[in-house]
Design goal:
MetN_ABC_transporter-like, transport, 35% helix, binds magnesium ion, ATP binding, four-stranded antiparallel β-sheet, disordered N terminus, single chain, cell membrane, nucleotide-binding, six-stranded mixed β-sheet
């Protein structure tokens, strides 16, 4: 696809690494439960990586370790060349570089859409009112919601609320965007508008890690797909390989389940050996 051919990763920069995100030997336990068991992953500047895998495989925990919403038990995470797992790091400064969008939009219900975008800019970036309002307008426009600037969140559809949440993250000027199942809470007819915004961001060269079950999005937009299971990366590669022709049995089983949930209920003896689900 065209965005793979453009030299998005060759923009000049000061840092030594071409990777926007580097994860080395990352482990995370909750009590006795080790949910990340040695993750090594690099995301180049401008790259879009989709993370897929079964429930409980550690996808959200992985994203949350990147912006330190969870403290890793072992290993290192670098964002933009800065080790965020360094004990002396300024966590707030790190978080300012990383935008995160969750399944739940978490907008403040009692203030307008614009105010939802202005507030974090004022509090975290100490921007003045005029500048913050201008940046809010610009980013609402970016997600196609300029006309909803004065609406309250409850007056918007779920898809519109999620686009506001994306605009709120973008208004902070992040270098990296993390998305954790951004369309999973939406009615199917609202998913497309949110994915369209993400597609535009990807096209603009934003570095993105996206946990998603939207395989068509992964195939179209992701530079790389990572399949996780049981706290490890089982396989990764271009979408056409990982989704289209997975090498690992576990990946095949997972994809069979999500691409055709009814398949498990059907007898499988007529399928060729490579296509056996379960
Ligand atoms: N704060 C926490 N305290 C204790 N256990 C946790 C916590 N957060 C996650 N876990 C456990 O870690 C494991 C991985 O959870 P995680 O949310 O990362 O999985 P996931 O791949 O995102 O799953 P899903 O697809 O359901 O969102 C699960 O067993 C979960 O119960
Ligand atoms: Mg999750």
């Amino acid at each position: 696809m065209p965005q793979n051919e453009t030299p998005r990763n060759e923009t000049p920069r000061n840092e030594t690494s071409r990777n926007e995100i580097e994860i080395r030997g990352l482990r995370k336990s909750f009590g006795d439960n080790e949910v990340l068991r040695g993750i090594d992953l690099e995301v180049a500047r401008g790259e879009v990586v989709c993370v897929i895998g079964p429930s409980g495989s550690g996808k959200s925990t992985l994203l949350r370790c990147v912006n330190l919403l969870e403290e890793p038990s072992a290993g290192q995470v670098f964002v933009g060349g800065t080790e965020v797992t360094d004990l002396d790091v300024d966590i707030d400064a790190v978080r300012r570089r990383i935008g995160m969008v969750f399944q739940q939009f978490n907008l403040f219900p009692h203030i307008t859409v614009t105010e939802n975008l202005v507030l974090p800019q004022r509090r975290v970036l100490r921007r003045d009112k005029v500048k913050a309002a201008a940046v809010a307008r610009e980013n609402l426009d970016r997600v196609g919601l300029a006309e909803k600037a004065d609406a309250y969140p409850a007056q918007l559809s779920g898809g519109q609320q999620q686009r506001v949440a994306i605009a709120r993250a973008l208004a902070m000027g992040p270098e990296v965007m993390l998305f954790d199942e951004p369309t999973s809470a939406l009615d199917p007819e609202l998913v497309g508008d949110v994915l369209a915004v993400m597609r535009v961001l990807a096209g603009e060269g934003m570095t993105m890690m996206v946990v998603t079950h939207e395989m068509s999005f992964a195939r179209e937009v992701a530079d790389r797909v990572v399949f996780m299971d049981g706290g490890v990366i089982v396989e990764q590669g271009p979408a056409e390989q990982v989704v289209g022709a997975p090498r690992e049995e576990r990946t095949r089983n997972f994809l069979n389940r999500i691409l055709d949930p009814a398949a498990e209920a059907r007898p499988t003896s007529h399928l060729p050996p490579g296509d056996q689900p379960g």
